[in-house]
Write a structure and sequence with these properties.
Blueprint (H helix, E strand, L loop, with lengths): L4 E6 H4 L17 H9 L4 E5 L2 E3 L2 H6 L3 H10 L15 E6 L6 H13 L3 E6 L3 E3 L4 H4 L6 E2 L1 H6 L4 E2 L8 E3 L12 E3 L5 H14 L5 E4 L7 H7 L16 H12 L4 E4 L6 H6 L4 E3 L1 H9 L2 H7 L4 H4 L2 E3 L9 H5 L1 H12 L4 E5 L24 H13 L4 H4 L1 E4 L3 E2 L10 E8 L2 E8 L5 E5 L9 E6 L5 E5 H8 E5 L4 E5 L1
Parallel strand pairs: 1-2, 1-15, 2-5, 5-11, 11-12, 12-13, 13-14, 14-15
Antiparallel strand pairs: 3-4, 6-10, 7-9, 8-9, 16-18, 17-20, 18-19, 19-24, 20-23, 21-22, 21-24
Helix pairs in contact: 8-10, 12-13, 16-17
Length: about 500
Amino acid sequence: MKNPKLFEINIRLLVRRYDTDGSRATLSDIPSSYWENLAGSGIKIVWLMGIWQTTDILIDRCCFEEYFIQSYNRSLKDWQRKDVIGSPYAIDTYEVNRELGTKKDLLQLKKTLNDLNIKLLLDFVPNHFSAETILLKTHPDIFLETIEEILSSDRHTFYRPIQQPHRIFAHGRDPFFPAWTDTIQLNFFNLKTREFLTGTLLNIAELCDGVRCDMAMLTLNNVFGNTWRGVIDENLFPKPHDEFWQSAITEIKKAHPDFLFLAEAYWNLEWDLQQLGFDFTYDKKLLDRLKDGTPKNIRDHLRADMSFQLKSARFIENHDEDRAIHSLGLEKSLAAAAIISTIPGMRFFFDGQSDGKKIKLPVQLGREPKESKNKIVSLFYDKLFQLTRNEIFSLGEWELKEVLPGWEKDRSYENLLSWLWTYNSFRCLVVINYGNVPSQGRIKIHAANSEELIVLTDLWNGEEYIRSLNEVFYTGLFVELHPYQFHLLLF
């Protein structure tokens, strides 16, 4: 799948929008028109975040720490105890959450999406399960177990589960942050753990077309070993020779060749995960450069090898990140959306982004605040989604273009980003001013045309520009743009 658009939906919030007469809606209550509208916008993958069964017993125990309460106060000022439904990433079992419906409902939704030429993506959380998962009764040995001495030294990271009160296990964690106390850590040096998770993936693959793998780099041998050095007994569990992802992805794709793997990935490990079989990996570095970097930083990032770029998932917001309007501001966020929509790779959008929502909601909350739709943002995204349905942006060949000075001693050209798409006999030159001042520059382009003049039509506003072929080839097409404005010039 080349250059697809992905749309992330917090499914626990979406179904609630269709609650009626005090009754709780399920997957089957979402009208087909909702999915048809996404298909009409060119969405090719829908990721339903939060579909799996969680453990209610952990809510009181883990979801009311001061940090969480502050985040609830910021995002939903009238929140109540019943609005706190726990993290969707503390999974009890990979079964459809009873509050959302049944396996049958999910399979029917998958069919609805597939009939619209949309693939269904669901969560896979490789690092951990719920701290009180039922698997503690049936498969306790797949988890990372330790001893009393280590528990005594760190009672935040280690605990005794209710279901195994005489054994000590680790909570899941990222090595740079405190442990997640609502989770239990899997032992990735245990081959039984790997076999269990591969089997789990095979079961999930019967329900969807791909998985978004949470914090995928935590399971890499070196990362896991460094995170749990001194805890794991490497005499019992020596480091495996192969990586979990390589064997697991190979196994799944034997049975389901087109099954998609998207990795949430950081720490410059994206390339490594791509080499292990991931179809796409998060491109958080691009977001950081769009927020805080310069146009030069962005341009340098886009010089990466094309094989890497085609497997990069570009986004400006998701459930973990601040809303784009909040983090970037209105005009800059729209320019950033134009960038991620017209460069190679997965174009990744989040529910509410195209409405101009500003509030980032903690994943533990099951009710969202009411926000008015921003008409400027909504109209912008409607237009952007429709224009980028043009096959040139999905099937075409992409080339980063150098921007030259428009005038001597004028350095505003450094704010301009430009690239060229080529598909069949058509070309589209994208030029974006990602600076906060009016900027001018020249871009050299070649057009296979026997005429002396070239006509460039801006897809965004319909304006036509007629230029000399000699000028655009030898001197360069002159471009002048206001801050955060852009051209999509088809010729």
